[in-house]
Design a protein that fits this description.
This protein is mainly alpha-helical. Helix content is 73%, strand content 0%. Helix 1 runs antiparallel to helix 2 (17-34) and helix 1 (2-14) runs parallel beside helix 3. It starts with a helix and ends in a 7-residue tail after the last helix.
Amino acid sequence: MASVTGSGALGSISGMAMGNVMITGVVTIPLMKRTGFKPWVAAGVEAAASSGGQIMPPVMGAVSFLMMAFLGLPYVRIIQAAIIPALLFYLAILASVYFYSIRVGATGVDRSEVPQMKEVIKRREGLTFVLSFLTLLGLIIAKKSPMYAVMCAIGIAFVVSFFTPSSM
């Protein structure tokens, strides 16, 4: 379920299925296999969850920009129309993973292996991504242009990265 949630979160800012699998799959597929999932099921879960990034607001891949151009609708309206189907997509995947894990008796990861959120944000460059995502989301909600919102988010990520262990 963490794999699905992570893929949904990353997919919402990348909008790319293949890139999402390459970034999150390296961690989540071995983790799912270790907890009791069969290898092909783990890969399928990751592929399905990563594919949802193309329909998950706010970025939604290139399709949101095509919809703006062809339909003449504002970006915020497209996001409003896409959020419920995208969340239902991820809810269905989460339910599938939950019921499969019960069926095969998959165990969760030991709590001692899970890092604290505060530690991740401070020491593993998490602050860079959190602040840039919040900037992107805030500017889109404020009805700024998508290009402006993305440029500001990249700028924030660049500046904040200098205050983390590895700068961009």
